Amino acid sequence: MQSWFAAHPLIAYVVIFILLTYVYNRVFRVNQKLSLLKEVMLYALMALGSGILLIFQHDKLPIIQCLLVAVGLMLLVRVRYFLEARQKRRAAADSAKRR
């Protein structure tokens, strides 16, 4: 996988940028909207950071794999929250039936 991404740097850059954007939007984004100029500046800086991470990826550091692990852990947390909410709804429904 590492050698394939080294052979295709444009694809590696796009994958890094997409994963980085996803992690930012799910973890670090505040609830309030930013102005358009701040949004453009933020994504431009993320594009620059993705370029730096691409250099690290090209130097044989597992950047894409680490971002994939981060996204996988975020998905596990979302599934856990979903299952806990469903369990609470069932418990509330069961206690309402007993009354």
UniProtKB/TrEMBL annotation:
Stored Pfam families: YlaH
TM segment ranges: 6-24, 36-56, 62-83
Keywords: Membrane, Transmembrane, Transmembrane helix
Top-level division of the source organism's lineage: Bacteria
Protein name: YlaH-like protein
